[in-house]
Amino acid sequence: MNFLYPEIEPFNTGYLKVSQLHEIYFEQCGNPNGEPVIFLHGGPGGGLQDNYRRYFDPKRYHIILFDQRGCGKSKPFAELRENTTWDLVSDIEKIREELSISKWAVFGGSWGSTLALAYAQSHPDSVSALYLRGIFMLRKKELRWFYQEGASFLYPDAWEKYIAPIPEEERDDFISAFYKRLTSEDQSIRSEAAKAWAVWEASTSKIFPDTEMISKFSGDKFSEAFARIECHYFINGGFLESENQLLDNVDKIRHIPTVIVQGRYDIVCPPQTAWELHKKWPEAEFIMVQDAGHSLSEKGITQALVSAVNK
């Protein structure tokens, strides 16, 4: 059963110059006079997919989506300069102002949930509701689990391919080793590292591996932005003041109606993080989807999100 709304095309697309260096692509779909909602994609560096428009009733919602700095249709591509969490928070607010929206709902999963929390805590008066999925707060234990040791015990076959570009003597810190290669001036070195990094995430995102997803993530263009930008954020601790910043600042957004959706078997962003947020923020509705992993497109996740947003 498909829980998504029918495919739609934007009624408006454009670019917004947010700095001397960056222009971000954005699009508007659905009802221009409807309830505003902005979709924050994952990664960082993941870019938009057409299906992202379909989580919202197009008759009810004014749906805004954008490619974050350095990815998708935004320019310049795969650029790391002027690309931080707080630059993106500023971009979201600039889009809101550009579109003359007073308040909007914010929908984000994985890295999108990180960015949604950071934005809401920075601009609580701009947010009418939060829809969060696959909670990620960019703490050391979360990064270590997925990129150093932990998830490796569950996916040893995919792990072998992930670590293949890294020599034995550099394997005590995979994020640093990948960052060195992803910022190399040698295109072949960057490409090999980017594909290994991106395919590792694609291979672990669903309970049943998705060959189409893995193929997309292994593409040169997608993997370059995805891997470079993710690794850039991770090696810099998400540019947060402290690793518990998003958890410690829940009081700033406690009043915002919020739904948290989490897959029980999420390998990329394990349920412990969502559970810690839930314990800190019991007022938010918490939904554990028992038969799902990480991906937005898994049936149980899709059903829970569509139901929450459109009820």
What would you note in describing this structure?
- This protein is α/β, with parallel strands linked by helices.
- It folds into 2 domains: 12-138 and 239-310, Alpha/Beta hydrolase fold, catalytic domain (Rossmann fold, 3-Layer(aba) Sandwich), CATH 3.40.50.1820; 141-238, no CATH class.
- The chain has 11 helices and 8 strands.
- The chain has an 8-stranded mixed sheet, with helices on both faces.
- Helix 10 links the parallel strand 7 and strand 8.
- Helix 1 (85-98) packs across helix 2, helix 5 (174-182) packs across helix 8 and helix 6 runs antiparallel to helix 7 (211-217).
- It is globular and about 55 Å long.
- The chain starts with 11 loop residues before the first strand and ends with a helix.
What descriptors fit this protein?
alpha/beta, 11 helices, 311 residues, Rossmann fold, 2 domains, 38% helix
Quick overview:
About 40% of the residues lie in helices and about 15% in strands.
Task: Please render the helix and strand layout as text.
Blueprint: E1 12-17, E2 23-30, E3 35-40, E4 61-66, H1 85-98, E5 104-109, H2 111-122, E6 127-133, H3 140-147, H4 156-163, H5 174-182, H6 187-204, H7 211-217, H8 220-235, H9 245-248, E7 258-263, H10 271-280, E8 285-289, H11 299-310
Parallel strand pairs: 3-4, 3-5, 5-6, 6-7, 7-8
Antiparallel strand pairs: 1-2, 2-4
